[in-house]
Amino acid sequence: MKAIAYICKTCGIEYEPSFIPPFQCPVCEDERQYVPATGQAWTTMDEVNAAHKNIVERISDNLYAIYSTPNFAIGQRAHLIISPSGNILWDCITNIDESTIQIIRQLGGIKAIAVSHPHYFSSIIQWSQHFDDAQIYIHKLDEEWLGRRNGAIRFWEEDEIQLWDDIRLLCCGGHFPGANVLYWPAERMLLTGDTIQVCPDLKSVSFMYSYPNLIPLSKQAILRISDCIEPLEYDKMFGAFGKNIRSEAKNIMAFSVNRYLSIFK
After folding, report:
1. Helix, strand, or coil here: 82?
2. What is the DSSP string of 34-70?
3. How far is CA 216 from CA 38, 101, 169, 262, in A?
4. What's the distance, CA 14 to chain centroid?
5. Coil, strand, or helix at residue 240?
6. Are the CB atoms for 124 and 92 separated by under 8 Å?
């Protein structure tokens, strides 16, 4: 009998190989996520591959969105940044198959994976292994939520770190203590996961402690996010679910923060 790296069907996080499925998914047991009324359920990468295909879509200069169809688990998108000193996968999705690997290799591969927060840990170990053990950047404050570990993971503890080509990760907190955003100055762009959630009107953004359970962030947490990115110069903001702001993003951010703060008055 072979140990299997089981995957949570609800959040898509892959766990260390075992002979039976884990008893629970700690990420889903947390109040920021949920266990379905039908109970915890598990799957495997082979089963995910059989039921889902990935789309690799060019959505901006030197930026590709990667997502599964039909949606799996949370349904987020990863983004592949094409940069001169090496490509970066921002956030991650669970499904990884041979066609996805070949397409990404044709685009220059992946030098590093950076993840905004635990809900998108997905199958980061498998993604790293398929691309020459690409280094994985996880904020130390979110270490406890990892489903799998290996030597490719680099835990960072600073408020901000620089990767290369002036691309930076900034820890804003909020949704999770280590929740972070990626700043790409050359493109005047922020990639935010759902640390900052782009709203459907594309004219506002949102900040939540829990999205599925509709738990808002505190005033203090929102101010910290705002203070973290206020010094940055950016026009564009790309979120985790295909909603993107392509101009005036900094003004939209300021408007949205003020709208939230007005509620606390």
Report:
1. coil
2. ---TT---EE-HHHHHHH-EEEEEEEETTEEEEEEES
3. 26, 38, 24, 14
4. 15
5. coil
6. yes
- CA torsion sign for 81, 150, 160, 118 is positive
Q: Computed over its alpha carbons, how large is the radius of gyration of the chain?
A: 18
d(CA 111, CA 115): 14
Instruction: Name beta bridge partners: 66.
Output: 56, 78
List the beta bridge partners of residue 180: 171
| Amino acid at position 45, single letter | M
Q: Which of 199, 192, 206 is nearest to 240 (CA)?
A: 192
Residue with tokens 């996520």: 33
Q: Which CATH number does 7-263 carry?
A: 3.60.15.10
pLDDT in tens, the chain (265 residues): 789 999 999 999 999 999 999 999 999 999 999 999 999 999 999 999 999 999 999 999 999 999 999 999 999 999 999 999 999 999 999 999 999 999 999 999 999 999 999 999 999 999 999 999 999 999 999 999 999 999 999 999 999 999 999 999 999 999 999 999 999 999 999 999 999 999 999 999 999 999 999 999 999 999 999 999 999 999 999 999 999 999 999 999 999 999 998 987 6
**CA end-to-end distance (rounded Å), the chain:** 61
Dist CA 20 CA 256 (whole Å): 46
Residue 53 and residue 68: Cα distance in Å, rounded? 5
